[in-house]
Amino acid sequence: MKILVIQQKMIGDVLTSSILFEALRNEYPNAELHYLVYAHTTPVLEHNPFIDKILHFDENTKKAIQFTSFLKEVKKEKYDAVIDVYAMLGSAITSKYSRASIRVSFKKWYTKPFHTHHFSRNITSQTNAGPAIEKRLRMLEPILKNIPKEIKPKIYLTEKERSNAKESLASAGIVDRKLLLMISVLGSTDSKTFPFKYLAEILDLIAAKTDAQFLFNYIPKQKEDALKVYELCNAHTQKSIFLKSFGHDLREFLALTSHCDALIGNEGGAVNMAKALNVPTFAIFSPGVPKENWSMYENGTTNISVHIKDYHPELFDKYSAKEVKQKSKELYNLFQPSYFEKKLLNFITPYQ
Fold first, then answer.
1. Which UniProt keywords apply (predicted)?
2. How far apart are CA 150 and CA 129, in angstroms?
3. Are the CB atoms for 118 and 95 separated by under 8 Å?
4. How far is residue 148's CA from residue 138's CA, in Å, rounded to a whole number?
């Protein structure tokens, strides 16, 4: 059995879809399992024991000549099954061109002719894994006899990566016995980023109540925005922010996060990665992102999320989903930290 999974999207999506490989490997221990992703998402897949080969799709591959060549390479692999989680026209063409006898994807009118099995994205979650996990596992029905109800995404770090991160933290002056929090400072876009002034208020609150130390999740080109949050914090909080200690690449960030007591901040890839490292998370959802779709493994203790809809559901009766996305910044400005202050402090209490 030779199977290709396609997930050409963001890091969180790629990590979430990686659960399919564990389920496939459990039933087909000798299968050859390949994963087609964008190259920049590969770090979350390194050392994954269930994946045999990672294929990359990049901007050049989208060009007609390169795409034709790419399709020929896919065809040569002679896959028995293709699971197209991405479910876009390009991935549907790849699926069809593979000539696999089983081609699975989500139901869309314009990709329907390319696949043999189709599943709706709409699902009522049966477990706290959430619909993002369950709807992916459901795609395995044409291939597996025994489909697990849930599988948690996992990230695999080496001991060397973790020890290097620990040494880096120690050399920066971070005290091992004190609370260490990774802060997801930025969302994937401006409209998905919690207002800086509110995030600074949250950090001031935590610093006033605990002896927490803070790391910021950002990359060098985002340093200016990270500094804006830092400068909005009061002097007491600033002393506890280790701005120079950050992951210079994704694997470094993962290793640093693995030593943190929790991750707090903007919902997105960083939250999904922390969960895959078994690091507790407190996620703040953008108004335009339905919490019910991405609140994976919520349990009210180690994984918690908040959304303005939790406090002002009437706002979402007034606007369509499209209008909510357009008004995301406006709605975010209404989402004051005081709404979830108590929930946040209760979340960090066990880790002090």
1. Glycosyltransferase, Transferase
2. 6
3. no
4. 9
State pLDDT tens for residues 80-109: 999 999 999 999 999 999 999 999 999 999
Cβ-in-10-Å burial (0-12, 13-18, 19+) of 339 comes to middle
Report whether pLDDT(1) > 90: yes
Domain 2-138, CATH homologous superfamily name and number: Glycogen Phosphorylase B; (3.40.50.2000)
As a whole number, mean pLDDT of residues 67-72 equals 94
* CA distance linking residue 351 with residue 339, whole number of Å: 22
Euclidean distance between CA atoms 286 and 291, whole angstroms: 9
What is the sign of the dihedral through the CA atoms of 6, 8, 11 and 12? Answer: negative
Beta bridge partners of residue 5, listed in sequence order: 35, 83
Three-state secondary structure string covering the chain: CEEEEECCCCHHHHHHHCHHHHHHHHHCCCCEEEEEECHHHHHHHCCCCCCCEEEECCCHHHCHHHHHHHHHHHHHCCCCEEEECCCCHHHHHHHHHCCCCEEEEECCCCCHHHCCEEECCCCCCCCCCCHHHHHHHHCCCCCCCCCCCCCCCCCCCCHHHHHHHHHHHHHCCCCCCCCEEEEECCCCCHHHCCCHHHHHHHHHHHHHHCCCEEEECCCHHHHHHHHHHHHHCCHHHHCCECCCCCCCCHHHHHHHHCCCCEEEEECCHHHHHHHHCCCCEEEECCCCCCHHHHCCCCCCCCEEEECHHHHCCCHHHHCCHHHHHHCHHHHHCCCCHHHCHHHHHHHHHHHC
CB 310 within 8 A of CB 334: no
pLDDT tens-place string over residues 152-182: 999 999 999 999 999 999 999 999 999 999 9
- Specify the domain boundaries for CATH 3.40.50.2000 within the chain: 2-138, 159-351
User: Which pair of structure tokens corresponds to residue 311?
Assistant: 């406090």
CATH class of 159-351: alpha beta
- Would the pLDDT of 60 be above 80? no
> pTM here?
0.94
